[in-house]
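quick one, 511 residues, struct below
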Amino acid sequence: MPIYKSAGLKGGKVPVAAVSLAGLAADKEASSKKFGKAPATTEKYGQCQQQGFKWLNDLMAVEARTQQPLGCPSQGSLQDASTMFSLEVLAHAFDKIPMQASPWVLGLFIASNCFGDNACGPATAWQIYSAFKMMWHHAWVFCFDQIFLFCDPNGKYQGRWRWDEERHCGHGNPAQSTEVDDIITAVKNRDGAEGKHFHSCAMKLEYMDRIMEWSSTQCPSTILWELDRLHGEEYHLRLPKATKHYFMCAFAASGWTIWTRNFELAKLQYKHIIEDAWTDDRYRFRHLVVILEHQKGWENKLSKEIDLQGHRYEIHSQREMPSVDMEFHLHEWLVFLRAFVYGHDLEDGDYIFPSVNTKGLTQPGMAISHDSIQKWLNEFVTGAGIKLSTDPPRDLRIPPLPKTGPMNARWKQAMHDWQEQDLSRGHSVALKDWHPTWYSGANREAFGMQYGKRKLIALELLDSCKGDEAEFLRKWPVADSGSPTKLLKAIHRARIESGSTKCHRTKEPKE
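---
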């Protein structure tokens, strides 16, 4: 009997050559590998698994040679997990068919890599977790017919792990167990306790403008019209790029607007959004409402019975700032989700920012990881031509102000140093773009005072005088005839008198 395949929405059914069930299974396996995880990711996970196998073999060899010292309690009297299983059982903990000891041994493998003298960070812990999760996700299922040798059609080893004592068998994935969750959490907490923080630069509005402008050139709005009319391979080639850009525009605008951490925003589900909300006043403005339930530190606040209404955000249109218009970008992404990701109206448990693999294919049942977000953010920042770094350039310096020439040219030079770079004077980065670590801490003695002087003059002109030089000279006539030192003293004294600056027993500013 010939097998038929669809020729499209408008076409009929076209007969193709009959194939065997084994052939179809082989094609399915090949397609899953081709369009599933990227080959580089699969290869890396395979290497991680091989390292785990070797580590376990070496550990069992050491344990087999270990002699029990005199006076040591017998194994039966010890209560820790290491005595619950025999060496023969532990040796098979990383078999393709998981067993009771599998979660505990996987936790040991992660701990051995992430704690100790040569400890690795959370990225290694997540890599080991992901590698073994993938292995057991595709656990072998014995069948007399070899068609099903490399698959788990019933999902027996998928989802949260649980052990059936009565039947002496497990269900779910050992990587998704409390044992493994606890050790990964410990690795992350270790980095926080030991001060291993990795700070990001603040995302300025001008950076958001450049990112959105670059994104629109890479993925114009016409892409939705094109996707709606494409089919087959061409559709699947274009979809990942569109997914990435619509996703990031919504994520970046949302994070910038409500000023939340990436891992908090990633957990957002449809139940946390009200699309058709209206203000209670007589104007009845339509807007979005977003509720964040996973913000850092809320557990402590809840224990202190503090009102937490601050986690509810009313999101209104910001057409005057289109790059950070969360209401617009999030609405566009919700439309995209319904049409091209979920394929139906969103439900309460649907993630707004679902996991996306390296090929740009979404995995709706999971929230996107922090690492994936950071990778895309780096890509967008680089694509927009933005250089963000907390490390100071090697040639970092603040050139001295001129000591000769017209007096007003000197404070104007200070203003110029604040707003723009001047490579002819060795000034490689405008002072307004300096990261705080460049002029504080270890760099305070070298740059702190000079940075502060130029900042005081620049902000007095830009903020107090709205950038009006004539107004600045009327307010500070000393700027037209005196040195920058006199100008700084006058501004500093006026601020002390007005109470906007506290008086400290330090020397007056000098140039």
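The first helix runs from residue 21 to 35.
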